[in-house]
Design goal:
By secondary structure, this protein is of the alpha/beta class. It has helices at 33-41, 93-105, 115-122, 128-139, 143-153, 156-180, 192-221, 235-243, 286-301, 317-325, 371-381, 395-418, 421-439, 445-453; strands at 11-14, 24-29, 52-58, 64-73, 84-89, 109-110, 223-229, 261-267, 270-276, 304-310, 334-339, 361-362.
Amino acid sequence: MNPIIIQQPTICAIATPIGRGGVGVIRLSGATAHAIAKQLTQRKTDFRPRYVHFCRFYDDKGIILDEGLVLYFNAPHSFTGEDVVEIQGHGGVILQQQLMARCFELGARQATAGEFSARAFDNDKMDLVQAEAIADAIDATSIAAAKGAMRSLTGEFSAKINRLLDLLIHLRLHVEATIDFPDEEDVDFLADRQIAEQLTHLKQQVSEVLATAEQGQLLRDGVSVVIAGRPNAGKSSLLNRLAGQERAIVTDIAGTTRDILQETLILNGLTVNVTDTAGLRETDDVVEKVGIERAKTVIAQADLLLLVYDVNTEENPLQLAKELFGELPNAKHILLIGNKIDKVKNVENLPKQFNQTYEPVYISCQTNDNLIALINKICEKVGFHPPENSLIARTRHLDALKRVQIALNDADEQLHVYHAGELVAESLRVAQQSLSEITGEFTADDLLGKIFGSFCIGK
């Protein structure tokens, strides 16, 4: 039985990029979408759903504006759940604008950003995770991210969340039963031991999904990496080697790089936003000073700092780090890169560790030695090791899952320390609400507006 869809006023938008092209698509959705298409094409009979119709498109005086194809999807069998029409004309800017203007004359209005996807969400054609995955698929910067987004779009991530919800709801029912009917024989199996086992299992499952989501968030957002060091250490050469092309000017003159230079790279499937910085040193050059201050700013904001040093002149890179930053950065957020090993007689004699914590990677930007090992180390440092069937996730998903973990830990404490069944039930309720935010079952309207507002107009 088909769900009852209450169709909203018709919206219209260009669904293909603006510009010159072979085909341009205009999408309509809403109560009068089919009627507008009939008037636009001067067609007397209805369009057959899910069939392609060749038509000419006319203005109000009967003059041909363009010709192309019309596809009609009747409610609820469409992307939005409403009547949807897609008009495929030629991809010229003027032609598309004329067709849009005619659709507006016939009663449609301009769609807002993400409004088509929002209507699909409102009509239960997809949940919030799937809706977000549409934008993520469009914005994907790597093959791995695109595949992950498509897996989320087809419901794999949602299925994981829904399985957690099933476990959580089942546990809540058990807890509520023990509270409401503590003396009933038919609920003796709801003893604390069984509840504790279910709670432990649920916590483990949430941790596994969170680990998957953390990898998915890295796939989607990538990481910010800054290359820093003294002048002529090989910072710009490293950027060029990682990029596979000459992006930065490289000379033997100290202070060649005076401003930050940014490049987006894909390393082992991970999107890495790399910033090359001016060599950090004392200088009287006004321009170079500005570049150094900008370098310090981006270094403070980076997810990972690549501290490049010349192994032939810098004996202790940790001392260099202290000089540059005033304190020793956390080992998790810094990677020491000893460059120019092509000039070292015996690389094996170079230190394997500093302070028993900081492990350097030795490379040569001149000969490309150990660059693959460096790339692997960068991915390891930021915790990027996605499974083959990875999914795309967002920061808000991670935030919700972490709140679920906190609530479940609180439930565990209330159960084992205080034996307070009512407080266990309350913690589980909070966990369920946080988990339901991910798929959009319980989500504030302002959050929905922010999410769909980040989409492109035609989606």
